[in-house]
Design a protein that fits this description.
The chain has about 170 residues and is α+β, with helices and mostly antiparallel strands. The protein has 2 helices and 11 strands, in the order ααβββββββββββ. It has a 4-stranded antiparallel β-sheet with strand order 3-4-11-10, with no helix packed on it. The relative contact order is 0.12.
Length: about 170
């Protein structure tokens, strides 16, 4: 991508330089205009990104909550303080789900693998077997008062709830 952008800039610069040398002899006279155009495009992209994050905010997602975008929608996966413990809720879907939740060096790592049952259909070519699988992994930095020895999780109705105990003072 960088090579393409540099190539386009070089072509633009070459065209401007040729035009400048034929008009007033200064090959760099149009460079400020080119950079101003690029700056305006970057400002437009920034406004679009700000609007997108404002929409997320209106949907109830906090700016501090990490999000994962997937074809199935948004998977909210931030650590939430529940006063007596911390909690992470992840949409994992339904099917055969294998989960691995570990904490090491104040980092919580959640791995989820999901596979759906094998479907068999008879066709003129014989028996066709199909299945699907997906995986998810995310790591979080645990808060200072989180007890990495008190981690428990459950999966129910397509949601995985990870509870992390707090260190009592």
């Amino acid at each position: 991508m960088k090579k393409i952008i540099l190539f386009v800039l070089a072509l633009l610069s070459f065209g401007v330089a040729q035009n400048a040398t034929t008009t007033n002899g200064d090959p760099f006279s149009q460079m400020d205009k080119i950079f101003q155009m690029q700056l305006k495009q970057m400002e437009q992209m920034q406004k679009q990104m700000d609007a997108m994050f404002n929409e997320f905010s209106k949907m109830g997602f906090k700016n501090t909550t990490p999000m994962v975008m997937s074809s199935g929608g948004i998977i909210s996966s931030g650590i939430e303080d529940k006063k007596d413990h911390y909690e992470v809720v992840i949409n994992v879907g339904k099917g055969d789900i294998k989960a691995d939740v570990k904490a090491k060096d104040n980092i919580l790592t959640i791995k989820v693998e999901q596979s759906n049952e094998v479907k068999e259909t008879n066709s003129s070519f014989g028996v066709v077997k199909s299945f699907s699988s997906s995986s998810y992994m995310q790591s979080f930095t645990l808060p200072k008062d989180a007890d990495s020895n008190k981690i428990d999780y459950s999966i129910k109705d397509g949601k995985m709830v990870v509870k992390i105990g707090k260190i009592k003072e």
